[in-house]
Amino acid sequence: MNETHDPLLRSWIDSANLPRQDFPIQNLPFGVFRRSGSGESFRGGVAIGDCIVDLAAASAGGVFEGRAREAAQLAAQAGLNDLMAAGIGTASALRLELSRALRSGSAQQRALESALVPQSQAEYALPASIGDYTDFYSSIHHATAVGRLFRPDQPLLPNYRWLPVGYHGRSSSIAVSFQQFPRPSGQRLISGATEPTLAPSARLDYELELGVFIGEGNAPGTPIPIGQAESHVFGLCLLNDWSARDLQAWEYQPLGPFLGKNFATTISPWIVTLEALEPFRVPWVRAEGEPAPLAYLDEAGLRASGAIDIQLEAWIETPAMRAGHCGAYRLSHTSFRHAYWNIAQMVTHHTVNGCNLRPGDLLGTGTQSGPGPEEAGSLLELTRGGREPLRLPDGEQRSFLEDGDAIILRGYCERAGAVRIGLGEARGQVSPSRA
Question: Which residue in 40, 229, 263, 274 has the fewest CB atoms around it within 10 Å?
């Protein structure tokens, strides 16, 4: 905790002081943007209220000095990889100087005003060049519920309680919010059939996740100790790992997800730093009777504050809802504090065999589902494998996603004595199959 977390701070940007908005001065997340339709180069920016601080313009205007100036120059590029590689201390120095410059009464107000761009006039790119993408399976509630559907005789495999299970995903199909993608096709084995058919997926689903961007990497062959793991994390975003459940069910054994997962992944445009999330840390605990992690995945500080109480929501907007201007409908609401495996454990386990992570690599937390049925992070769970369709407020029903449906993920943190901060939105929409 430091001066940037002070709940009494106010900004000279009025929209940053409004209640229940995502980007107060206590947040200051990083992203990559340009003015919509301008043909400008994409460059780094920081969200504040309904505006973006253009870091290239602010740097050129001499707003920053010392380490913060170095950080702003690194962030003024088309991707944040160089800023990520410089370590969390460099990004923290920039965040501190921005906080001071954006506060009410700051002498830097006039210099920064010309570097502001309204978010309503911006378009976004991926915040970094993502070299590799690994998706984990950190919610035991999700793992157990899905296991019951796919393997009713053994819902939770024996290794789950001992290691953070993950698989290598496809970075080429990751896109920033407002991604549209065609319904995927692949092999499906219809119930009662003896041979598969090639067809568009009939069981398309979303997954409510967080994304973890790696900052400073590690050398090949050099594991990251659990006590240092979070120093290698640049920040968090929202992540929707779209899933074709019928393709997944047919292909996932013996080597795990493939075509059922690699066609689209949507992330939010803003990366919220772990520093900004510090006021919302809570103890990392497991239910009574659960085994303690092996020593390399355990640490006193982790147990004391290794979880983060991030509220996560999934909303659906169907074509009929858009036509009727009736707004999206919330499907579920849960918290990241329920995760069985936390961020530090994922990073440490990923590198324990000597695997090297690089700046801009992305880790998915896996679908975040809580202990209650209303906290499920996918339609697969909410509809009991499609057997119990959801009835939406306008009378429509959904077992799985239909063409034209949009899913909006939202995330935020709030508690007494702290200012609410948000992660923005990750929005994606399904188009008809091109098959």
Answer: 40
276 has a pLDDT exceeding 90: yes
Question: For the chain, what is the radius of gyration of the CA atoms?
Answer: 22
Per-residue burial over 104-116, b if 16 or more Cβ lie within 10 Å, else e, is eeeebeebbeebb
Which CATH superfamily, name and number, covers 133-431?
Answer: Fumarylacetoacetase-like, C-terminal domain (3.90.850.10)
Return d(Cα 46, Cα 28) in angstroms, integer.
6
Measured CA to CA in angstroms, residue 206 lies from 113, 203, 401, 409 at distances of 39, 10, 8, 10
Q: Which of 5, 141, 142, 168 is catalytic?
A: 142
What class does CATH assign to 3-125? mainly beta
Q: Return the pLDDT at 151.
A: 85
List, for residues 136-157, the tens digit of each pLDDT value.
999 999 999 999 988 888 889 9
End-to-end Cα distance, the chain: 53
Which residue in the block uniquely carries the two structure tokens 């410089």? 86
133-431 has the same fold as 3-125: no
The ranges assigned to domains in the chain are 3-125, 133-431
- Name the pairing type of β-strands 208-214 and 204-205: unpaired
Q: Can you tell me the distance from the alpha carbon of 1 to that of 7, in angstroms, rounded to the nearest whole number?
A: 12
How large a percentage of the chain has pLDDT more than 90?
A: 96
CB 395 within 8 A of CB 221: no
Q: What is the pLDDT of residues 38-76, one digit of tens each?
A: 999 999 999 999 999 999 999 999 999 999 999 999 999
Contact 403, 424 (CB under 8 A): no
Strands 265-267 and 233-240: antiparallel
State how beta strands 281-282 and 179-182 pair.
unpaired
CB atoms within 10 A of CB 221: 10
Is 142 annotated in the active site?
Answer: yes
- CA contacts within 13 A on the Cβ side of 144: 12
Return the SS3 of 344.
Answer: helix
How is residue 430 written in tokens? 């399904």
How high is the pLDDT of residue 318?
Answer: 98
Tokens standing for 121? 């006039």
